[in-house]
Amino acid sequence: MAMTARIDVTGQDLLASLRQFLRAILELQDIRAILVPRHLPMNNAVMPALVTDPDCLEGVDPLAPAFPMNAAKIVSRLTGKPMGAQVAAILRPCEIRAFIELVKLKQGRTEEVVLIGIDCLGAYQNKDYLRFAGEDGAHATVRFYQSVLTGRGTRIDGVDLAPACRACEYPVASNADITIGLFGIEFDDHLIVQSQSVRGEAVLKQLNLEQTVEPTARRETIAALVAQRTAQRDEMLAQTRAGTENLAKMTTYFARCVNCYNCRVACPVCYCKECVFVTDVFNHDPYQYLRWATRKGVIKMPTDTLFYHMTRLAHMSTACVGCGQCSNACPNDIPVMEVFRSVAQATQKAFDYEAGRHIDEDPPLAVFREDEFAEVVGMSLQTGRQA
Amino acid sequence: MEDFEPTLIAFVCNWCTYTAADLAGTSRLTYPQNVRLIRVMCTGMVDPQYVIKAFLEGVDGVLVSGCHPGDCHYINGNFKARRRIKLLKEILPRFGFQEERLRLTWIGASDGIQFAETIRAMVAQIKTLGPSQARLKMVI
Amino acid sequence: MPAATEEIQGAQEEAVALRFLTAPVRILSENGKVSGLECIRTALGDADASGRGRPVALEGSEFVIPCDAVIVAVGQRTDQSWADQVPELQWTRQGTIEVDPNTLQTSLPHVFAGGDAVSGPASVIEAVAAGHKAVAAIDGYLRQADLGVQAAPTPAQKLSGENWRPLPAGLPAEVRASSRRLDPKARVASWAEVDCGLTEAEALHEAQRCLNCGICSECMECVRACEAQAIDHYMGAQELEVKVGSIIVATGYDLLDPTPMKPYGYGLYPNVYTSLEFERLSNATGPTGGQILIRNEEGRHTREPQSVAILHCVGSRDVNYHEYCSRVCCMYALKYAHLIKEKVGPETRVYDFYIDQRCYGKGYEEFYRRCQEEGTHFIRGRVAAITDQAATADEAGKLIAIAEDTLLGQRLRVPVDMVILCVAMEARKDAVEVARIFGISQGADGFFLEEHPKLGPLSTATDGVFLAGACQSPKGIPHTVAQASGAAAKALSLATRGTVAVPSAIAWIDPDVCAGCRTCIGLCPYTAVEFDERRGVSVVNAALCKGCGSCAGFCPSGAAQVRHFQKKQIMAEFDGIMDAGQAVGM
């Protein structure tokens, strides 16, 4: 954190100040565009938007409790191949962590993007947000951040944050070039921006902002928030584990799954162009179904539901950032995120890995060492861990 | 469940464990007939999917067995397999498939006796664990 | 008088009188012959612009030097006869061409000047130097470089002494030899060469004064002396690109350095040798012309040894160093024993300390028997230490090998004049780097790993790369030759066929499914997967792929699959097993 600067908030309008900051960045010579959540003219939907015209920053709203998709996928699209220009992206911490994973999988590059991580106030599930936002999305955002930042909580009008956000222990971005700080700040007076990288510092220096120091209250506020979230996470994971501890419970858990694969489409780290479950491998011949049914007497159609979810766990749980988009995307409201986070916690710990922690850490299954995991080899009952 | 005869699937590498199994046969060694071998060129080509599929289809145990470290015909496929088995051993037990049902062993081409012993030990152990839940419950 | 000291001295020896502050006035003559030179005394006047006093004639001090001949030492000045044609050229007051002292550029930018015309009368060497300087400046001028920058004189380098060989302490200072000169009396009367030079003995002695501190002065005499024309001072590192179809790696081995094995006293006692050093010592082209001689404290070879100890397995078969057997030591140790007996004499006592005598080759056991018959003492037991601390009068001035004879169960102290350590052969220090370059692997011992210990002892994991010699494992000359011949034949069989058969069970990556994450590239042990930047997908090089499926085991989308072991096929195989199992009631 080489540099901390302040942005004054006038008229208690946090969004206006943020837009001012973004305008200053957009007017820099070398930043051609900003990717940022923006209210669409229709239906108050908030979606990532790529803005090049500073005058189009009106309607930009990185504080809205809307999280229709994990924008890491968008940043991946923008950076997968050289663009020939620098863009800035305003992202939630989970989006940055997902993007770090995508970069490791060569689905994006950091060379042409300035990652700006904003303190994440959380978001509602898609349906809840639409209800909450009502007719005036901008006003809804003001109500939301006022409530969150003054400590009145995230539950408004009987609506609370998505389960993923309630259990998220990463409210503040790491691995960003620049962070925008809201927690533990006199937010009706100013907010702070900090550089976390050389590139971030270079951008901030060009803006000629007034330098300041990080208020001590900020660290404490974040620590308290993380502690509270961690407790909620552990409670959620314990419940989920109990609810999925055997096949019968798993079957109940996923009983409503219709194999739409929306969770895989929404997942930011499911990077395959085509999921193996839609390739030829699973394009079974009709007689095959009959054969399976004959063997078992009855099979549920469509088949391979648990096979799909467990395979996906094997494929991406080590890269899971817990953003909750899988749950958000499920048409039948299956709490997919909970299962994935409960397994991800174990698989990431097993490889001493943390998704999105560091860009130089190799994905666990992309590397190996000769001297490791001796305990998984052989016939002895070494770990004694029972299901 | 005394009359329970478990079904085991063994993914064995062409160069070491498959040869060992062959040797066990030509040496007239006996071992339980509960195991079915799927020959692969290297344990490094065993996709974790195969193991998951086997368990969901009601197999009671899965053995993945390849060459000893340093003996891998493909230099280091067995080490890659070891990471994948490690991963599966973190996932499967969370859903009630006991860790002991999945085994990774190194059995060299000349270890016919060890192959027979491994199968014996694994079958005996799975008999004490009882049938896999996927045999008894409908899997979706 | 700006003459060389030795010239002045020589003149004085020959009774030439030197007259300073004297100026000639005129030459006197009688009968048309010179009779004398009239001179006038001068005194140094006030200093002029150059700081030198101008001589001023002293009125009335004229005098005559009677003489028969006058030799006029005429001064020189620049030929300015053409100066009018180049009016722009500026001249100094001394009548030389005015130049920039650094670039030798004249007042005409495209004209440079050097030599006597600039410096005034000077030596040929200085003129040549000026020529070099001017050429460099002209080159810069034509390239339109900044002459000011390039001409800045390089500051005199301070000698750091870093590149010098350290000089032995306490060397007595020796005076430079000077050549003998003819007696002045004799030389004024003859035309003989005054400087007689050094005699051969003096020259040799003078040459030996050289401390050789600069190691090589590039005199190139060695190039002339080498009949085989094996020396090239200008040879430097070159990078060559050679297109080949196969490669035989024969990078050899390193010898274990026994210096850290303190008990053996290598590096401490002058007569503890490694096997290779002894090999050199006994070689006819070696430092002693093949005589086996021990060294004194100064390291000079003095006399033949009366007794020699040969120690097997130094660093081999030793868990602290290398667990493997270096294989060649037993036989060369026997050879040394035989050589010593033959060259120094059969009465020389040779002690051969071994763990096991491994004489497994053709004729080897017979040679062992012969050495036994020659009287070499074979002692089964590892030597614990070599010391020069004598315990008895017999041991005085000797090296004592302390060991246990494990056959007799006795502790031994064996005084000897010379000790030979049969040090282990080990993998070369750069083996990791070489292995990486060729895509081959190393065994636990560091040597390159063959494809299969029995069925592929010449091949490696990379097709077309073969192994020969001690880079694969310690081995002697016959085995190296055999392996190298085999490797050459393997390489030739590839070359003559001209085509390579690719196995069918190899991987293929579906370009429609591949997302280009490139994880398979990192996992492939054969560097058989490449990335196609244009299409953004990974591609299997069929000539390199061996079908291990490291890529397929990872690829989450199933884009990478191994032919004959496709996901669909394996799952079908599994389904077949389950159906069949059910049919028999499993």
Would you kindly provide a brief summary of this structure?
Chain A is an alpha/beta fold and 387 residues long.
Description:
The complex is a heterotrimer of chains A (387), B (140) and C (586). Chain A has 387 residues and is α/β, with parallel strands linked by helices. In chain A, 39% of the residues lie in helices and 12% in strands. In chain A, strands 3-2-4-5-6-7-1-8 form an eight-stranded mixed beta sheet, with helices on both faces. Chain A is globular and about 70 Å long. Mean pLDDT of chain A is 93; it is low at 382-387. Chain B is an alpha/beta fold and 140 residues long. Chain B has one domain (8-136): Rossmann fold (3-Layer(aba) Sandwich), CATH 3.40.50. Chain B contains five helices and four strands; from the N terminus they run E-H-E-H-E-H-E-H-H. Chain B has helices at 17-26, 48-56, 77-91, 112-129, 133-136; strands at residues 8-13, 35-40, 61-66, 102-106. In chain B, strands 2-1-3-4 form a four-stranded parallel beta sheet, sandwiched between helices. In chain B, helix 1 (17-26) crosses helix 4 (112-129). The longest helix of chain B has 18 residues, at 112-129. Chain B starts with 7 loop residues before the first strand and ends with a helix. The mean pLDDT of chain B is 93. Chain C has 15 helices and 20 strands. Chain C has helices spanning 5-13, 116-119, 124-142, 147-151, 184-187, 200-208, 221-225, 275-281, 329-343, 364-374, 431-438, 477-497, 519-523, 550-554, 567-583; strands at 22-30, 33-47, 53-57, 63-66, 247-249, 253-255, 272-274, 307-314, 349-354, 377-380, 383-387, 399-405, 410-416, 418-423, 425-427, 465-467, 507-509, 529-532, 537-540, 560-562. Chain C has a five-stranded parallel beta sheet with strand order 7-14-8-9-10. In chain C, helix 9 (329-343) packs parallel to helix 10 (364-374). The longest helix of chain C has 21 residues, at 477-497. The N and C termini of chain C lie far apart (121 Å). The mean pLDDT of chain C is 90. Chains A and B meet through helix 9, helix 12 and helix 14 of A and helix 2, helix 3, strand 4 and helix 4 of B.
